[in-house]
Amino acid sequence: MLAVGAGPANLAPAVAVEELAPEPAGGTLLIERGQDIVWQRGMLLPDARSQVSFLMDLVTMRNPCSRFSFVNFLHSQERLDAFVNLAGFVPYRSEISEHLQWVAGELAAVKVEYGRECTSVEAVIGAGRDAHVPAVFDGLPTERVIHSTQYTQRIAGVRADLPPRVAVTGGAQSAAELAGDVHARYLRASGRPVIFTSGTDDSQIYVVSSAARAGLVPEEPALRSAGQIRGGLCESCGHPNNFDELLRPRSTVDPAAVVTHRVREALERPLPDFPITYPTGWGIPAPFVEMPGQVLNAWAEGMGASMYCTWYAAEQLGEHTDRYDEHWLSEHGIDLVYFLGFDNVYFWGMTHLALLMAHGDRYVEPHAIVSNEFYELENQKFSTSKGHVVWAADLVAEVPRDLVRFYLALTAPEHSRTNFSREALDTLASDRLVEPWNRLAGRVEELLAAVPVSRTGADHAGILVERFRSHYELESFSLHRAADLVCPGGCPGPRPRSAAGSGSGRLGTDPVPADQLGEQLHGLVAVQ
Q: 473-480, long-range: CB within 8 Å, 24+ apart, which pairs?
């Protein structure tokens, strides 16, 4: 058997042949065009995580005892302990890439050859994803368009002396991660160092009730939906709702169980009590002899977990420290920024802040909190348990991912609930992005030839660049407004305020006449 391309699609059957059919394995050749094996070579950003569990590696689902598993790879590299302590299920992309190279090196019977290409034989081909660049960008010079599959190879070649006019189409696994990723990219593009990290929260008691309804053990939904676990607060108002403060409380796990409660007046005391432990069996065991058999409140463990996640992300960037809390020490003077849903603001903005302040001036306090409201699906709450959900992988298989990112940014629930609608995605992306830019692309040469370069055009270009920049800075961070600027003549919805002083009011807000648009295009080219 000849396999072309040494990615997961071909390494998995190569491992299967090696384990199950030793004789055919000796006649199996896997060739790779590159000089090594790198998974999604252009997309290995330092803080990028996989979207699937480490158990979905090349072999574990088929043979959990295989020596080629991701777990055995970590063990062989003396990194298993660090990964387990991270208390998560999704590894960094760089770790998956290293695992693939390690597997190729461990194959004994199957041969792997590098720097080889195949042209005319029937074979199993695992060539990886193709770069899709929307047609609207076809006329741009290749040095000005970098697809994500080529990002890490080409970004270092961008001229550092040019003004930082970078349009980044970023994505993540939730609205908060999307915003955080965009801001981190902007800071890096501005030459500012960034450690961007996120973690899971699978100790929440909500996991137990969800598992009981589905007839599962808690570990199963925690593994499947780690990024959606939360509890201990009201999703409508964002205030904490400890079990002993609920009216007529009942257990969703055991409706017959007796649940103790107190009713307090809302203003009886400045802040409600915050339980450090819970008398349940799900979570991290409490290290207090006074509380045998109890576990830590998931919200209490969050601050320590965040410090560990920061340490782990820094390790992936090559910034080794011996202390897990090193980067949070106030002596380093970092700017700590939270990106989160508004229903988490109480704990992160008050409870966790109190935990930090309890150590005096030892730790840095948050510089800013960027929160978003709820994002609904067809005017109803997203619900994986009820099947009312849109999976990103399914959506981008039908719609170009750049259009999806544009729509998500444009409809981001920054200050109020907004709604995802597939019909609106198709209509808005077509009417406000694809068709206008395609029409403009067809007239670029005409407009540039008909309108001379002018100081006005250059000024307008500078205003546009400054407007983009302002929407990525924390003081006026707004994905909606950034996406709005991409629309020729502006998109529907709240209009961005001027960020560049007088004379900038109409740029990117009202429809722009063709001659003025030509001046702006000339300005952009002139300052390039």
A: 473/186, 474/183, 474/337, 474/367, 474/368, 474/370, 477/179, 477/183, 477/370, 478/412, 478/414, 479/178, 479/179, 479/182, 479/408, 479/409, 479/410, 479/412, 479/414, 480/409, 480/410, 480/411, 480/412, 480/414
Are β-strands 277-278 and 295-296 bridged in parallel, bridged antiparallel, or unpaired? antiparallel
- Single-letter residue type at 197: T
SS (H, E, C) 377-399: ECCEECECCCCECCCHHHHHHHC
Q: How far is CA 452 from the centre of its chain?
A: 43
How high is the mean pLDDT in each 10-residue block of the chain (528 residues)?
Answer: 85 90 86 84 66 84 92 90 73 86 91 81 53 69 69 60 51 47 75 73 62 65 48 54 56 46 39 80 87 87 89 89 93 89 80 90 90 86 81 89 90 87 91 85 73 73 84 87 76 37 33 46 44
pLDDT of the residue at 241 = 58
The DSSP H or E segment spanning 11 is helix 8-20
Assess whether 29 and 102 both reside in one domain.
yes
**173 vs 370: CA distance, rounded Å:** 17
**Is the full-model pTM beyond 0.85?**
no
Which own/partner contact pairs does 446-452 have at CB distance under 8 Å and 24+ positions apart? 447/514, 447/517, 447/518, 447/521, 448/518, 448/521, 448/522, 448/525, 450/515, 450/518, 451/515, 451/518, 451/519, 451/521, 451/522, 452/522
CA angle, corner 87, sides to 104 and 387, nearest 5? 90
Distance CA 78, CA 37 (A): 21
CA-closest candidate to residue 95, choices 33, 151, 60, 48: 48
The answer to the question of residue 345 being in a domain is yes
Say if residues 477 and 471 touch (Cβ distance below 8 Å): yes
User: How many beta carbons lie within 10 A of that of residue 410, not counting itself?
Assistant: 25
Question: How many domains does one find in the chain?
Answer: 3
**263: exposed, middle or buried (Cβ count in 10 Å: 0-12, 13-18, 19+):** exposed
The three-class DSSP label of residue 340 is: strand
Instruction: Looking at the structure, tell me whether residues 441 and 494 fall in a common domain.
Output: yes
Q: Could you tell me if 218 and 292 lie in one domain?
A: yes
Q: How far, CA to CA in Å, does 216 sit from each of 3, 92, 405?
A: 39, 27, 34
219: which DSSP letter?
H
* In a domain? residue 344: yes
Residue 481 φ then ψ, to 5°: -70, -35
Of the candidates 346, 314, 310, the one whose C-alpha atom is nearest the C-alpha of residue 328 is 310
pLDDT at residue 210, rounded to an integer: 64
Q: Three-state SS for 98? A: helix
Examine residue 500 and state whether it is found in any structural domain, yes or no. Answer: yes
